[in-house]
């Protein structure tokens, strides 16, 4: 492997020729050209607080060029619709496909191919967003102008095979007073662990109209020879509400950014994020919240557990400008270390220019399991492994329980429990005490 800087992710395919290939007939080429220029000009991490915590060397995807894919959204058979779901969207190296159930059709839900010239907001400021804006090869638009859909919309994203890249854009637009829930399942075929040789990059671009409500949960459980980069950008109308639950469990390298733009007065976001890293996994996650509207609410909680030689960087910035009168915000980031070789960093930050806030608070901690807790549980008859398992699952449970769908919460508990048991079995001699 060629020696390179910590933040480098060289991509031989990030060229004018590639974006031309991805723009048949020139559709969207001007937008891609601007984004490509931004990708080459921007630093990997522009925030000086976070530049010391970027390491992308776990991915070797410089030759994994994205292929040109069909842009239409194919129709799936009705049998593909999960039990209890309103609609299903599948995104993979074969393209995009969807099926709408009766409730979704009656409500007027629309799932179409994303317009080739649709700009990706934030591409001029963030390098990951610029990468996706320039080189995306599949895009889906999901929109609902009015009404309510009680059953969830399921979005399944399957990572590409080794030696290839999939860059997908998912745009969601909800009209005034709409109510929707979305479940994202990010996965891929099983593969051996090791340096990531394929790339999955996704953008989630959500626009919430006035008084719209969205519950969005995402579980990422990719094989550990994949690199996963993702950007989420949420724009809030007046009184709009978002409940976001994100779980990052798989992949060799994860780099994610979430932006909440609380522009509408009285809008609010409640976000929970759970991270589990083991082996040599790297998780680099950042959330930015801008409270530019009045009386907005931001309640953000992230918890990570790290075993083996895994590293986790959980960072956040809450910004309250002069216009953000009456803001109520909390930013909490907490890490638990299961081995002496694991590392975690938590950096919550507040930028406040408005003295009239209802609340502006943050908290963080990183450390091993408290030996007193292990001693207490062992005195009640649990083995050492059972005690550690109980403590770790209890640490994560407030985040898992916040998932909007019970079935997804139970599935995540099973995934976390299996990964925890594997981590405890692999390194009993190096567990932190």
Structure report:
By secondary structure, this protein is an alpha/beta fold. The protein has helices at residues 16-21, 29-41, 102-107, 127-135, 371-379, 384-400, 406-426; strands at 73-75, 87-92, 95-100, 110-113, 138-144, 153-158, 165-174, 179-187, 198-208, 213-220, 226-236, 241-248, 253-261, 268-277, 282-290, 297-306, 311-320, 328-337, 343-352, 359-368. An 11-stranded mixed β-sheet has the order 1-3-2-6-8-10-12-14-16-18-20. A 9-stranded mixed β-sheet has the order 4-5-7-9-11-13-15-17-19. Helix 2 runs antiparallel to helix 4 (127-135), helix 5 (371-379) packs across helix 6 (384-400) and helix 6 (384-400) packs antiparallel against helix 7. The chain is globular, with a radius of gyration of 21 Å.
What distinguishing features does this structure have?
nine-stranded mixed β-sheet; alpha/beta; 2 domains; eleven-stranded mixed β-sheet; 433 residues; 20 strands; globular; single chain; 7 helices
């Amino acid at each position: 492997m060629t020696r390179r800087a910590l933040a480098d992710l060289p991509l031989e395919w990030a060229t004018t020729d590639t974006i031309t290939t991805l723009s048949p007939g020139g559709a969207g080429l001007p937008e891609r050209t601007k984004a490509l220029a931004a990708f080459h000009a921007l630093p990997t991490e522009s925030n000086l607080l976070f530049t010391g915590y970027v390491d992308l060397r776990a991915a070797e995807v410089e030759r994994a060029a994205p292929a040109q894919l069909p842009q239409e959204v194919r129709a799936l058979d009705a049998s593909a619709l999960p039990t209890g779901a309103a609609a299903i969207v599948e995104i993979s190296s074969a393209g995009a496909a969807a099926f709408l159930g009766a409730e979704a059709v009656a409500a007027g839900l629309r799932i179409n191919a994303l317009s080739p010239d649709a700009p990706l907001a934030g591409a001029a400021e963030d390098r990951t967003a610029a990468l996706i804006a320039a080189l995306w090869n599949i895009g889906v638009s999901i929109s609902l102008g009015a009404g309510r859909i009680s059953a969830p919309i399921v979005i399944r994203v399957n990572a590409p095979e080794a030696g290839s890249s999939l860059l997908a854009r998912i745009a969601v637009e909800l009209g005034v007073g709409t109510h929707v829930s979305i479940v994202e399942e990010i996965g891929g075929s099983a593969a051996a662990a090791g340096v990531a040789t394929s790339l999955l990059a996704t953008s989630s671009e959500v626009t919430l109209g006035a008084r719209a409500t969205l519950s969005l949960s995402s579980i990422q459980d990719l094989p550990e020879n994949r690199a996963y980069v993702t950007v989420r950008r949420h724009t809030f109308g007046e009184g709009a509400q978002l409940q976001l639950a994100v779980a990052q469990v798989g992949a060799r390298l994860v780099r994610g950014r979430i932006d909440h733009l609380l522009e509408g007065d009285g809008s609010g976001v409640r976000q929970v994020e759970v991270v589990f890293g083991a082996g040599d996994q790297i998780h680099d996650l950042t959330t930015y919240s801008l409270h530019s509207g009045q009386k907005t609410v931001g309640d953000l909680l992230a918890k990570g557990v790290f075993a083996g030689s895994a590293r986790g960087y959980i960072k956040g910035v809450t910004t309250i400008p002069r216009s953000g009168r009456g803001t109520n915000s909390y930013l909490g980031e907490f890490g638990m270390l299961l081995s002496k070789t694991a590392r975690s960093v938590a950096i919550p930050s507040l930028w406040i220019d408005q003295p009239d806030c209802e609340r502006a608070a943050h908290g963080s901690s990183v450390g091993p399991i408290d030996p007193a807790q292990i001693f207490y549980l062992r005195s009640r008859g649990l083995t050492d492994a059972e005690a550690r398992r109980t403590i770790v699952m209890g640490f994560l449970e407030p985040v898992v329980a916040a998932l909007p769908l019970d079935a997804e919460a139970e599935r995540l508990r099973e995934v976390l429990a299996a990964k925890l048991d594997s981590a405890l079995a692999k390194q009993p001699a190096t567990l932190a005490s």
